[in-house]
Specification:
alpha+beta, 7 helices, Fructose-1,6-Bisphosphatase, Chain A, domain 1, 7-stranded mixed sheet, single chain
């Protein structure tokens, strides 16, 4: 695999890409065999693939000496005193992995002063990688080559394509999307929703849940931003990382940037009604 075409990149970017690729390969090995599924204390599923991926990523990232916040490890709160940390989801979309949809990813972000400065998302079944570094643009590796990616310039809500969760789409979200006048809706697993918006294949992803955690969005945050889009909470507030409470308390809105304010304003009206 060729190196990502970014000059003067931080050395951690290549380390993160290497970790995501190796973890992705290990996940695919488990995916094609028989494996056991357990349930974690929060009722979410975990497989051997989550565990193997986590081990590989930690081994590779530990060379950089930055602390690691991973979905699959006990949270060591000493990270809160660190300026720079890794935030990792070793297997985003475990339900999609179990359901054999192929729509699961590996997510790795490097966060400095509470903001992601690089993000890498590997999509193992498609041999695709999304990657970005702050100030250097966003790229996608597919069909054995790297290409720069950008969001679309669509600014009319009725012409927007929205992507949402296959497993967690609530009635509130369905009704809100309908209220916005958006008819083009596709269910897709894991962080691929943000990958699609960053690549110009969709314009919006709306989720009002408070169940999303920092590792579900950190890599995506850098990629969408560098592709020219925007990620905030549902009220339009910026998102920060390496917080004591890792849940995003007020949902997440990801767009091409041009329709962002319109959606935030409509959401605020909903709040006033309720």
């Amino acid at each position: 695999m060729d190196s990502i075409p970014i000059s003067d990149k931080v050395p951690e970017l290549d380390v993160a890409i290497d970790a995501a690729v190796q973890a992705g390969n290990a996940i695919l090995e488990v995916y094609n065999e028989k494996y056991e599924t357990r349930t974690k204390s929060d009722d979410s599923p975990i497989t051997e693939a989550d565990v193997k991926s986590n081990e590989i990523i930690k081994k590779i990232l530990s060379k950089t000496n930055h602390s690691i916040l991973s979905e699959e490890d006990k949270d060591d709160l000493s990270r809160l005193s660190k300026e720079t940390i890794w935030i990792v989801d070793p297997l985003d979309g475990t339900s999609d992995f179990i359901d054999k949809t192929g729509e699961f990813t590996v997510m790795i972000a490097l966060v400095k002063n509470q903001k992601p400065i690089l993000g890498v998302i590997a999509w193992p079944t498609e041999k695709t990688i999304f990657a970005a570094e702050k100030g250097k643009g966003a790229y996608r590796f597919s069909n054995n080559k790297w290409e720069k990616i950008h969001v679309t310039k669509i600014s009319e809500l009725s012409k927007c394509r929205t992507v949402g969760s296959r497993h967690h789409l609530s009635e509130t979200e369905k009704n809100f999307i309908k209220k916005l006048g958006i008819e083009d809706f596709t269910s897709i697993g894991s962080s691929l929703k943000v990958g699609k918006i960053s690549s110009g294949e969709a314009e919006a992803y709306i989720t009002t849940t408070n169940k999303m955690k920092e590792w579900d969005s950190a890599a995506s945050y850098c990629i969408i931003k560098e592709a020219g889009g925007k990620m905030t909470d549902m009220s339009g507030n910026d998102i920060t990382y390496n917080n004591k409470i890792v849940n995003h308390q007020n949902g997440i809105l990801v767009t091409n940037g041009l329709i962002h304010e319109k959606i935030v304003n409509e959401f605020k009206k909903l709040d006033q009604i309720s």
